[in-house]
Amino acid sequence: MTSFVSHTTVDCRSAFALSEWWKQVLGYVDVVDDPNEAGDEECMIVRPDGGHRILFVEVPEAKRGKNRLHLDLRPGDGTRDEEVARLEGLGATRMADRRDEHGPGTGWVVLVDPEGNEFCVLRSEAEIGR
Q1: Per-residue pLDDT tens over the stretch 63-114
Q2: Domain that includes residue 43, residue range
Q3: Quick one: which of 31, 44, 48, 59 has the most CB atoms within 10 Å?
């Protein structure tokens, strides 16, 4: 017997605001028949094909320290650097730059979302094949 991941949960201060931000980042949508609204303490978003889900849950305490678990994003279109620029335009903040650390054209960039949760942007599939 094994288990499967139902969804990823993110503790946050504002479930609605953070779910709206991540919808822009990932192209996710609200759950059909359960739209997220301002003031909701829990907001679920889902990949448009019904796959992976992320649940944002409001908690009273602020984030402290480094995430023990984080998302690694791979651009669906374009390059890693184009995606980093897009995400910074949406309000992500660069925390660390690990590009070219293991040779030219390698590595990733560590960003944080508006509540300080770290995530990484990897090279696109096209860049890996180069």
Answers
A1: 888 888 999 999 999 999 999 999 999 999 999 999 988 888 889 999 999 9
A2: 8-58
A3: 44
Is residue 14 in some structural domain? yes
Residue 116 belongs to a domain: yes
Q: How far apart are CA 130 and CA 58, in angstroms?
A: 42
Q: Say whether both 78 and 33 belong to one domain.
A: no
Whether the Cβ atoms of residue 77 and residue 122 lie closer than 8 Å to each other:
no
In the chain, which ranges are E strands? 8-12, 29-30, 42-46, 53-58, 71-73, 93-97, 109-112, 118-121
pTM above threshold 0.85: yes
**One-letter amino acid identity for 114?**
P
Q: What would the two tokens of residue 50 be?
A: 């019904």
- At 121, which CATH number? 3.30.720.110
